[in-house]
Amino acid sequence: MTATMFAAAPLAQLAQLAQLAQLAQLAPLAQFAQFAQFAVNPQSGYALPPRWGWYIVLYFFLGGLAAGSYATATLLDLVGDPRDRDAVDLGYLIAFPLVVACGLLLVVDLGVPLRFWHMLVQSENVPELLFKWWSPISVGTWVVAAFGFFAFVSFVGALVERGTIRWAPLVRLDRWARARPRPVTALWGVLGAFFGFFLGGYTGVLVTGTSVPVWHNSQLMGALFLISAASTSYALLMILLMRRRGRSPHDGTVEKLARADRWAILMEIVVLAVMVALLGRLARPIVAGGFGVVFWLGVVLVGLLVPLALHGRRVGRMSEERRATLGAACVLAGGLLLRFVVVMAPQWPGVRPWSL
Amino acid sequence: MAKGFFTDTTVCIGCKACQVACHEWNELPAPNNGATELTGNSYDNTGHLNALDWRHVRFIEQLPVSREMNGFLQGSRWLMMSDVCKHCVRAGCLEVCPTGAIIRTEFDSVYIQQDVCNGCRACISACPFGVVDVGEDGKAHKCTLCYDRLQHGLEPACAKACPTDSIRFGDVDDLMVLAERRAAALQAQGTDAYVYGKEEIVGGLNAFFLLVDKPEVYGLPSKPELPSRNVSEGFAGSAAAAAALALTGVVSFRKNRMDQAAEREETRDGSAPAGGAPAAGGPSA
Question: Where are the beta strands (DSSP E) in chain A?
Fold first, then answer.
């Protein structure tokens, strides 16, 4: 993807448009089209697209799942029922592998992947650490690292609890840790969940911290991503409980998750509606055109409205398992498509829908 | 002492010596293996600032709707401008760079250290002027204000090559005085000339311009904002969402819900409350 490949195609079309406009004596349009190469493209205004593609879309999606499953597990652990243990277990089991996947995606996305550590350590001043609290990306790098640590420890703890890890020193360590007073063990989960919330939301704030008009003017993007992270995590845990632990859709834990998910979906609808309304004309790349179809059908209909109708309600002659699984699957699909549209649409045509 | 450019677009003749000099000095290759690319947009051959073109000459043909109006070619203008990195006093790219690759040099220019940059491309999205671009080597590139030449007392290549002195290099304060004087002279002649790049434009541009039309005509934003402007609001919104999620989560996950669900299960099926085992009385798939 060279700069010229990026520049040539749309410019050639714009140039032709400019020629035609001039011939047709549409001087104002001709002027506008000519010099406004990228400004005439409502998607990018004057900022260039950063060419964030599927690696980043998947990172946003999986990061949200990692954060949400950890936070859900912690919440269930703190206020839930002994019967929720399975969900707590699952949450802590999947969070760490998801974070690892996130890290890999971020590294592979870099222009010079082997230099990923430059975001953590000053490369000209090793071993001084690098942290710019005013840059969402710098903050996010450390959040991923911190959350990864919490997720790892809880992951190992979950494996010990299940008996998968039987190495005596670790088992002893696990027993000791769990025997600490309740406030201490609770604090661990809360801290991890705090970093999880950060992970789930900062990616939206990062997107706001750019000059691409659609992103720059979406102050609610962080909130939207965070709510979507929670929603997709509830859905994922529901599916895992039903498919991998044999729970029924009427099982208490599954219903709790469905209930929480309905709240999250409602909040997501409100935040999304407000965000799009406040953007006004700037929202066109997302709500109109090809990406608009994906947005309205995939994100709104399949991702939000259908699950809202399916969660916790009986539907005609559909079996309960199918209904519950379908609802959760729609939430997951909608979450992925939301990030796809938000990341890719404003970068068109510099970034194609299949760009990595 | 801040060094920078004063680009007087009113004396630019569109010769593109600046583009050539920049390529020559920085050993930037011709794109597309040197095959000629025509944009079809007047005499513009670079299209936009990018990883290989750190100077880009714009050509803006302004023609009236009807050429017979006021006489042949009356009311028409051909504006030319050599676009470049603005080396902003408050630079968006510098703000967001997570590796610290982008620094402010002793000349107050904004410079991307090529051995630090890891290609995250945050700076590309951050620049409100669309200056920075990612190259084929995966790293970010833009005008360096010829940092290597400055360190040896030379002026940047483009300023040296410009035949009309449209591009002038020097201390920003001195250049601003010259620019204001030039703008006043042009205004006295009836042209709406003004300086673009004073403090109101992201704190000031060390590479500023003399323009005769609205900034948008030249492809420049009239009210650029720093990318970080909405970040604190973004974090505040996220915090509020986090609180709402924690609240709804607690309400949904509380123990008593479990008991209510169990009671419903018992009255419906007459069996034990749902738990680890699949419900016996549920409809089959």
Answer: none
Q: Are residues A183 and A240 in the same domain?
A: yes
Shortest CB distance from A27 goes to which of B64, B129, B134?
B64
Q: What confidence tier does B72 reach under pLDDT thresholds 50, 70, 90?
A: low
pLDDT, tens digit, 9 for 90 and up, residues A149-174: 999 999 999 999 888 988 999 999 98
A34 and B218 within 8 Å at the Cβ level: the answer is no
Contact residues for B242 (Cβ-Cβ < 8 A; gap 6+):
A197, A201, A226
A309 Ramachandran zone, left/alpha/beta (phi>0; psi -120 to 50): alpha
Of B96, B120, B252, Cβ closest to residue A209:
B96
Residue A203: inside a domain: yes
Chain A residues lying within 8 Å of B284, measured CB to CB? 319
pLDDT digits (tens, 9 = 90+) for B139-193: 999 999 999 999 999 999 999 999 999 999 999 999 999 999 999 999 999 999 9
Cβ neighbours of A111 in B, within 8 Å = 117-121, 134, 137-140
Residues A58 and A29 in one domain: no
Q: Sign (positive/negative) of CA torsion A45, A47, A53, A55?
A: negative
- Among the ranges given (A9-18, A332-341, B170-179), the one the predictor scored with the smallest mean pLDDT: A9-18
What mean pLDDT, rounded, does chain A reach?
Answer: 86
Flag if B99 and A115 touch (Cβ within 8 Å).
Answer: yes
In a domain, A354, yes or no: no
Find chain B residues with C-beta within 8 A of A204's C-beta.
234, 238
Set of chain A residues whose Cβ sits within 8 Å of the Cβ of B118: 110-113, 115-116, 118-119
Q: How many CA atoms are closer than 13 Å to the CA of A35, on its beta-carbon side?
A: 25
Whether A24 and A98 share a structural domain: no
Helices A168-179 and A136-162 meet at what angle, rounded to 10?
110
* Containing structural domain, residue A13: 3-33
Measured between CA atoms, how close is B61 to chain A, in angstroms? 7
Rounded Cα gap, residues B61 and A30, in angstroms: 9
- The CA-to-CA distance between both ends of chain A, in Å, stands at 10
Residue B182, judged by CB atoms within 10 A of its CB (0-12, 13-18, 19+), counts as: middle
Question: Encoding tokens for residue A307?
Answer: 């699950």
Count of structural domains, chain A:
2
C-alpha atoms less than 13 angstroms from C-alpha of B223 in its C-beta half-sphere:
2
**For testing contact with chain A, the best of B235, B251, B268, B284 (most A CBs within 10 A):** B235
A46/B contact by beta carbon, under 8 A? yes
CA atoms within 13 A of residue B69's CA, in its CB half-sphere: 9
Q: Using the beta-carbon criterion (under 8 Å), do A226 and B241 form an inter-chain contact?
A: yes
What is residue A33's predicted lDDT score, i.e. its pLDDT? Answer: 37
Whether residue A99 sits in one domain with residue A18:
no
Confirm whether A120 is domain-assigned. yes
Extract the tokens encoding A264. 């999250």
- What is the value of pTM for the model shown? 0.87
Q: Is residue A340 part of a domain?
A: yes
The reply to whether A18 and A126 lie within a common domain is no
Rounded to 5 degrees, what are φ and ψ at B173? -60, -45
Q: Using CA atoms, how far apart are residues B238 and B236, in angstroms rounded to an integer?
A: 5
Nearest to A219 among B51, B218, B234 (CB): B234
Q: Which of B135, B233, B245 lies at the smallest CB-CB distance from A226?
A: B245
